[in-house]
């Protein structure tokens, strides 16, 4: 009997005052087209609301989008909020305008991807799929 794989559930969060949502909307459509279930929370979210939604919705991954150069702060707040809501098993990926100097910090937090403008959708989708698969095969899973 074949084991049915769980559909990847992606929570897309835009934390803070970033009004640029075209990238997040393009990602939402691409993720859906790739067979993922997408929960797009819209603009002006708090880290707490994104983390709580991800836990409540049994998300496979959180995808953060920011075009203000503030991802280091957003990601830290998300990681802290996931701890608060007992969701540290949910991987976090990020994209947007991320200063190069912030990349090592984000990786140290456990935030992966950290994609910049112009990254191809297949690359992002592949990263999400591999991240979720790796997380599902972890000893804690």
How many individual β-strands?
5
- CATH architectural type: 3-Layer(aba) Sandwich
SSE order, one letter for each helix or strand: EHEHEHEHEH
Radius of gyration of CA atoms, rounded to a whole number? 14 Å
CATH superfamily: Cobalamin-binding domain
Oligomer: single chain
Total of helices:
5
Helix proportion: 40-55%
Morphology: globular
Strand and helix map with partners:
Blueprint: E1 9-13, H1 22-33, E2 37-40, H2 47-56, E3 61-66, H3 71-84, E4 92-96, H4 103-109, E5 111-115, H5 121-136
Parallel strand pairs: 1-2, 1-3, 3-4, 4-5
List its traits.
single chain; 141 residues; alpha/beta; Rossmann fold; 5-stranded parallel sheet; 5 helices; 42% helix
Overall description:
The chain is 42% helix and 18% strand. By secondary structure, it is an alpha/beta fold. The protein has one domain (9-131): Rossmann fold (3-Layer(aba) Sandwich). The protein has a 5-stranded parallel sheet, sandwiched between helices. Strand 1 (9-13), helix 1 and strand 2 (37-40) form a beta-alpha-beta unit. Helix 3 (71-84) packs parallel to helix 4. The mean pLDDT is 93.
